[in-house]
Amino acid sequence: MRNVCAAAVTAPPLVLSKDVRPGEAVDRMRGHWRSRIERVLPDRPDIIVLPENCDRPHGAGFRDAWYQEYLEARGDGILEMLSELARSHRAAVAYPAHRRDESGRWFNSTRIIDDRGEVAGTYDKVFLTIGENEDDGLAYGDKPVAVELGFGRVAPIICFDLNFEELLAQVRTLAPDMVLFSSAFHGGYLQQHWAYTLGVPFVASVYPPAPSGVLSATGEHLARTTNYNEEVTVRLNLDAGLIHMAYNEERFGEIKLRYGSRVRIHDPGRIGVVLISSEDENLAIEDVMAEYGLERVRDYFDRVRSHRTQAVAVRVP
């Protein structure tokens, strides 16, 4: 059993008049997100996910002089506030924002702040929209990343990224324990597609009125924000694996007879796959899978692909 509490926290972009001085705007932004995050702190989350460009005021264009002045005034101010919050509450934070690197290039990034308040990793959005690159002058990120935290590996992605299968394939090779999605668009069923294809929970923080929420490794919705509450927290068990029913269904019965409630086998229906998880801190699901010869569904599908390739190769006309 490996329980993790994940929180998705969102809010509409903060409305600030351009008459507001950049320094004051930054102070208001700090207060805005601090007050939002404080709503989930009683649940003691291990990871808090914020929406894309969370500290960008409403309607602020990247090329606008006021926004550039705001970014200069912001510096690392929001980052430092979130780092202090992470350190104080022992909660990692996914902080998506415009980021300038040492060479002066700007990126649409997510920085992962660990529970010590340190930046444990940075993801630069790989699939910008054309406008982000041509109009805003943002630089493309090179590749996805997986960031090691105390509870496991997280892979952040941002908004438009969700549309690209090649990025999904690259994230899969990183073997994350959780995907963190920060976005201005919801993505619809693509959220479920990513969760199921990767076989890991998917935590989405999206600007309202679209819902934010948490999906299980089977692509099922575990919790979503509503028109009343713009934050959710969910407890997840990361000691789990997706297993296909083919060749394994009889073993599931044997596992339940032996381990009883120490092992949970969840069947979402319709997809021929179950989510098997350990409910005992002294029992690792990998050990159960090894004992009964179970393979994760992604490995089973790869074996089917290999079998087909070999069978076709030896086919006689």
Radius of gyration: 21 Å
- Total helix count? 9
Order of helices and strands: EHEHHEEEHEEHEHEEEEEHEEHH
Largest sheet: 6 strands, mixed
Shape: globular
The end-to-end distance, rounded to whole angstroms, is: 52 Å
Note the beta-strand portion. Answer: 25-35%
Mean of all residue-level pLDDT scores: 97
What topology, given as strand order, has the largest sheet?
5-4-3-2-1-12
Number of separate strands: 15
What does this molecule look like?
The protein has helices spanning 22-37, 65-74, 77-89, 130-134, 165-173, 189-198, 249-259, 285-292, 297-313, and strands at residues 3-9, 47-49, 92-100, 106-113, 119-124, 147-149, 152-158, 178-183, 202-206, 213-215, 221-224, 231-237, 240-244, 263-266, 273-278. It is an alpha/beta fold and 317 residues long. The strands form three sheets. A six-stranded mixed sheet has the order 5-4-3-2-1-12. A six-stranded mixed sheet has the order 6-7-8-9-10-11, covered by helices on one side. Strands 13-15-14 form a three-stranded antiparallel sheet. The N and C termini lie far apart (52 Å).
Index terms:
317 residues; alpha/beta; six-stranded mixed beta sheet; 9 helices; 15 strands; globular
Topology (elements, then pairings):
Blueprint: E1 3-9, H1 22-37, E2 47-49, H2 65-74, H3 77-89, E3 92-100, E4 106-113, E5 119-124, H4 130-134, E6 147-149, E7 152-158, H5 165-173, E8 178-183, H6 189-198, E9 202-206, E10 213-215, E11 221-224, E12 231-237, E13 240-244, H7 249-259, E14 263-266, E15 273-278, H8 285-292, H9 297-313
Parallel strand pairs: 1-2, 2-3, 7-8, 8-9
Antiparallel strand pairs: 1-12, 3-4, 4-5, 6-7, 9-10, 10-11, 13-15, 14-15
